[in-house]
Amino acid sequence: MQTGTLISGVGHAALILWVILGDWLFARKDAPAVEVAEVSLISAAEFDAMVAAAPSTPEPAPTAEPAPEPPAPAPEPEPAPVVEPPPPVVPELPAPSQTPPPAPEPEPVPEPLPENNGVADALPLPVNPDPIPEVPLPPTSSPRPKPAPRVAPVPVDAPQPAVEVAEAPAPAVTPDPVDVPDVVEPEQPEAQQQEAGTVLETEANRDQQVAASGAPPTSPRPRGRPARSEAPAVETARPTPTPTPTPNTNADAVAAALAEALAEPAETPRPSGATNAPQGPPMTSGERDAMRVAVQQCWNVGSLSSDALNTTVVVYVSVLQTGVPDAGSIRLISSTGGTDAGARGAFEAARRAIIRCGAGGFPLPPEKYEQWREMELVFNPDGMRMR
Amino acid sequence: MTVNSLSIRALAPVLAIALMGLFGVQAPAQAQSGPLRIEITEGVIEPLPFAVPDFVDEGGAGEYARNIARVIASDLSGTGLFREIPREAHISRVSSFDSSIAYEDWKAINAQAVITGAVTVSGGRIVVKFRLFDVFSGQQLGEGLQFAGTPQSWRRMAHKVADAAYSRITGEGGYFDTRVVYVSESGPKNQRLKRLAVMDYDGANVQYLTDSSSIVLAPRFSPTGDRILYTSYATGFPRITLMDVGSLRTQTLAEQQGTMTFAPRFSPDGGRIVFSLERGGNSDLYMLTVGSGNLSQLTNAPSIETAPSFSPDGSQITFESDRSGTQQLYIMSATGGEARRISGGQGRYSTPVWSPRGDMIAFTKQHQGRFHIGVMRTDGSEERLLTASFLDEGPTWAPNGRVIMFTRETSGAGGSAALYSVDISGRNLRQIPTEGAASDPAWSPLLP
Fold first, then answer.
1. Chain A residues with CB inside 8 Å of B404's CB?
2. Are residues A227 and A318 in the same domain?
3. Secondary structure (3-state) at A373
4. What class, spelled out in words, does domain B48-170 have in CATH?
5. Residues A54-76: pLDDT tens digits?
6. Per-residue pLDDT for A173 more than 70?
7. Which whole number is the average pLDDT over A44-53?
8. Residue A179 sits in which domain range?
9. Which of A249, A283, A305 best probes binding to B when mutated, by most B CB atoms within 10 angstroms?
10. Which of these three, A237, A266, A295, is where a domain ends?
11. Which residues pair with B39 in a beta bridge?
12. Which of the residues in chain B have pLDDT under 70?
């Protein structure tokens, strides 16, 4: 017991001592930093030689060879000392005889130097005796681009909407619309009216509200089904066994709900009567990502100015059904964050990216052409900036 | 039974959504009301491929036509932002300056920009004209330009063309038609001979401005490029000296008995010179008004203040001082007064130089036995070290604020100094070819 107390006491005493003195005893002594100054650039020998040479008349102008164009002043040969024999070495580095006693106090404002010490503004000889003016060439002579030999002048047999790439419900879109109509009819009217009534106020307000809020114009998950051919088709694929009443089994319920959920994309983008809104199923996030990846691998910001790297540009592009961008349609919609020059550079880089990577057609789902026939690509270089 | 089936039916939508998630069915994106909008935030950083076919000889050009094209290609490739597609890979040949551009041919070799041009030499004049094309958009970038001068200045005209192309593609000014004044060194390390020299930014056209009779240090161009300030030991003591480049006439400035003056630098308008003046073992910063010769003291401290550099608007000065115990960087008004420290990292900071754009300060840093060239914001933030070696020091900015040149010295008795340049991103470190050793570079403004 006593031993324990003793040990504890000693331990505490040591701890207290360490707390009090440890900082002093074990303080990290910063290694004396190595003195480095510009003086290190001048060797003592050089300085000595120079000091010794000083009294010997200051040589008004060390008229150096202005080096005529050819290799006149070829690099001096190695045995340079031969050319300029250094005078006897002066032992004391600072040349005491030369340096007068240091002035007692640096005068706050020394008196102005004599007039002749001021730099004559009249030494106008330019470095370049022959300035080179730049003259814009007459625009008339600008060459026209040679008509590019088109490989396929006519749009190559447009690959008809490939059904296989689409989402799961796609197969139900095309099949026999003939035997379905009556099944579909009853559902149509209610759904459309409900959605239009609750989501959208008026036609006139819609665009303004959407623009102001930035919110999507329609809900992605309406309960009813608008009058779109695809939507009914989804329904029809299921009830092929004709007018069977509501399924009773659990499995059917799940299947029906799943089909309903999967069919949702096909119906959302229809703002009842809107004219400029794209028709058809919306792009999934995966499809958008594919498009994003396709563009970004050609978006080269390596040659952009830092100003352009501070500029976000929104670029419009119209895309052909083949997925190839229409180069002539590419235009700058807006830019933020930089100057006009920066915006121009950023836009040109964006345009190059679209044209280059779209040359073979972007990976876009053909059946959703209405969705991507026009695009606004936002090129935001925030993450690519050099700082 | 009924209850059970009802509850299952009620849960069916939930189950369906869960199944969708389980099987990775992609959720539809938000409905869109206008064109599909996609944001691209990731890109690539790589040199832009370009092509410069030999310029067309429109009369008497001879080798100039080819050489000018080569200098242009070299200028652009040397930035690290562009990559030349070798001539051997060209499909299209440009035989006439006004001929149309076969974009498809250039696309086929992935050239994204093409520079075509023509050269004429007659009557002691050389005329160079060029056009720049954006291949993938099928458009000419800007108008064509032409330059005229003496045949001896053909390299300058090539640099002019490269500057214009660089500017049009990147959106920022070029730096090819510039010169660099530096200290040319020769001889062994313990008896080195130094003299001032001027060269094109790429190391060509070296001209020596002084002989080796006295040590010279730290040359600096005037804002117009026609004068050079430097520190000369011609009198035995460091004295700031002004040289007129055209006539090579020199003039010693701020000469006062018992003082040493060094580290001079022009103000952006060329009307003032800030420098260090040592008196009695203490050095402070002084300002000399060009023309009147008025001298004013900017700092008054027992520490060493030196290496001053103006901000581009001339209102502030950055300098180094050991007033805190070690060399650190400070900023103060160009009229003097309170200075604020901007360097905060470990190590010693020296030779600050304000960027021509005004947003950054380049500096030399010594830390743990290594020297670095770095840049930081003017408030000291975002410090980035661009290089590391046995001895890197003395940065100088290209006029467009994108590239930094500096001195790198190798270790050992046989070590020597050389000039290097690096992009402010830290990429594209390259040595500038010089005749022999070289140090203390200072970049000129763009030539007229």
1. none
2. no
3. coil
4. alpha beta
5. 544 333 333 333 333 433 333 44
6. no
7. 62
8. 170-266
9. A305
10. A266
11. A378
12. 1-33
Look up the CATH architecture of domain B179-443: 6 Propeller (2.120)
Domain presence at residue A175: yes
Determine, yes or no, domain membership for A157.
no
Q: Single out the residue of A310, A305, A301, A312 nearest to residue A353, CA to CA.
A: A301
Across the interface, of B138, B213, B425, the residue whose CB is closest to A62 is: B213
Do A242 and A205 have their domain in common?
A: yes
Among candidate residues A214, A238, A266, the one where a domain is terminated: A266
A119 vs B12, B160, B291: nearest CB: B291
For position B188, what pLDDT does the model report?
80
* Distance from C-alpha of A26 to C-alpha of A142, rounded to nearest angstrom: 78
pLDDT of residue A43: 59
> Does residue A206 carry a pLDDT above 70?
no
Q: Which of A161-165, A197-201, A349-353 has the lowest mean pLDDT?
A: A197-201
Q: How far apart are the first and last CA of chain A?
A: 66
ipTM confidence? 0.72
* Listed residue (B72, B79, B89, B71) closest to B48, CA to CA: B79
Residue with tokens 């200051």: A58
Q: What is the pLDDT of residue A162?
A: 47
Q: Give the tens place of pLDDT for each residue, B319-335.
A: 999 999 999 999 999 99
Residues in chain A within 8 Å Cβ distance of B15? 254, 257-258
Tell whether A48 is covered by a domain. no
The pTM (predicted TM-score) of the whole model is 0.65
Alpha-carbon gap, residue B100 to B90, rounded angstroms: 15
Residue-wise pLDDT tens digits, A303-325: 888 888 889 999 999 999 899 99
> What are the residue boundaries of the structural domains of chain B, listed by start?
48-170, 179-443
For testing contact with chain A, the best of B4, B7, B23, B32 (most A CBs within 10 A): B32
Contact yes or no for B318/B354 (Cβ under 8 A): yes
- Please, which residues 269-308 of chain B have a Cβ atom closer than 8 Å to chain A? 273, 279-282, 284, 286, 288-297, 300, 304, 306
Whether residues B233 and A81 touch (CB distance < 8 A) is answered with: no
Nearest to B71 by CA among B84, B89, B90: B84
Structure tokens at B290: 């060009």
Tell whether A299 and A258 lie within a shared domain: no
Distance of CA B37 to the CA centre of its chain: 38
Structural domains counted in chain A: 2
> How close A184 gets to chain B, by Cα (Å)?
21
User: Under an 8 A CB cutoff, do B208 and A65 touch?
Assistant: yes
Is A47 part of a structural domain of the chain?
Answer: no
Mutate to test the interface with A, among B38, B272, B434 (most CBs of A within 10 A): B38
A256 and A297 in one domain? no
Per-residue pLDDT, A282: 81
Query: How many contacts, defined by CB atoms under 8 Å, are there between A and B?
Result: 483
The token duo for A177 is 């619309």
pLDDT in tens, A103-162: 444 443 333 333 323 333 323 333 444 667 777 776 544 445 455 444 444 444 545 554
Asked whether residue A294 falls in the same domain as residue A255, the answer is: no
Q: B179-443: same fold as B48-170?
A: no
